[in-house]
Design brief:
82% helix; mainly alpha; 192 residues
Amino acid sequence: MKPVRTAARAMLASIFVISGVRVLMNPGEGRVQSARRVTDRITPLLEKTDPRLPTDPATLVRAKAAADVVAGLALASGHFTRPAAAVLAAGLLPTTVAGHPFWAAPKEERPAQEIHFLKNLGLLGGLLLAAADTEGKPSLRYRTTHAVDRSQHRLNRAVDRSQREMRRAVRTAKREARIAALSATAARKLPG
């Protein structure tokens, strides 16, 4: 892995690891209240999916923080970087909407909330780039498509080769049949 890529991933992951650890230690009532903007909407869906899933906002905030720490460490260490970046990006969306709704903030708080909202959008952009980064290697789609193309090419070559060999075998059999027929005719003409 290139040093720039390593450093960029570590810098990008640092905010998620540090804030995740802080939230795990103390979620804070303000953060839980902000999370209610999103959790109140998804609670019915969670209850429908599985009644055993937690629906308490404080528990959901801690679960998201734990996911941020684990995914942040994976991203920073270079292990499972694409899935880790995708998990962080997916978790950042509700956090941004719930935590920084500048459009609903009072006029004096609006600029600060807008800055935090835009900062999170910038982080989201970095995470999307990290999620799409193949480190210079061909993507899975490219490799799959080309593997199929190579297989089809090999199959076509094998079919062509088999057809040529079949035509050659037919020509050889005809030639041998003619030679055998000529030999038989010549043998009948010889006095014997």
